[in-house]
């Protein structure tokens, strides 16, 4: 389990919302402390496709190791009641 913060931003090219997940730690009490520690991140995009709604998501990766765009896997989405979107099958 990874705890942290998330934010949604619009992709101007596709018009989709991109959910970015970023790991945080209890000792992240200042910007300086936050910037010093490597952390995991992942992104999730939910979009319409000819086969129905799909999730495109990345694996959890180290932020300091980021080079280029994350590798994305496309899987069917299953929507549950609440504040969660869960891929129905792992890639």
Structure explained in plain terms:
With 91 residues, the protein is mainly beta. Helix content is 7%, strand content 48%. The protein is built from 1 helix and 7 strands, in the order ββαβββββ. It has one helix at residues 31-36; strands at 4-10, 17-23, 40-49, 52-58, 61-62, 72-79, 85-87. Strands 1, 2, 3, 4, 5, 6 and 7 form a 7-stranded antiparallel beta sheet that branches. It is elongated, with a radius of gyration of 15 Å. It starts with a strand and ends with a strand. The model has no long low-confidence stretch (mean pLDDT 79).
Could you give the distance between the termini?
18 Å
| Alpha-carbon Rg, integer | 15 Å
Strand percentage lies at over 45%
Which range best describes the helical content: under 10%, 10-25%, 25-40%, 40-55%, 55-70% or over 70%?
Answer: under 10%
Total helical elements: 1
Low-confidence stretches: none
* Main structural class: mainly beta
Q: What is the total tally of β strands?
A: 7
Give the SSE order as H and E letters.
Answer: EEHEEEEE
Inertia-based shape: elongated
Give average pLDDT, whole number: 79
Give the SSE layout:
Elements: E1 4-10, E2 17-23, H1 31-36, E3 40-49, E4 52-58, E5 61-62, E6 72-79, E7 85-87
Antiparallel strand pairs: 1-2, 2-3, 3-4, 3-5, 4-6, 6-7
């Amino acid at each position: 389990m990874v705890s942290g913060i998330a934010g949604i931003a619009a992709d101007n090219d596709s018009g989709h919302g991109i959910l970015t997940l970023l790991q945080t730690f209890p000792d992240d009490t200042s910007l300086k402390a936050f910037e010093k520690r490597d952390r995991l991140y992942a992104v999730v995009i939910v979009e319409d496709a000819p086969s129905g709604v799909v999730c495109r998501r990345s694996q959890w990766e180290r932020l300091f190791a980021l080079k280029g765009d994350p590798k994305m896997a496309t899987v069917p989405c299953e929507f549950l009641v609440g504040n969660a979107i869960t891929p129905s099958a792992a890639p």
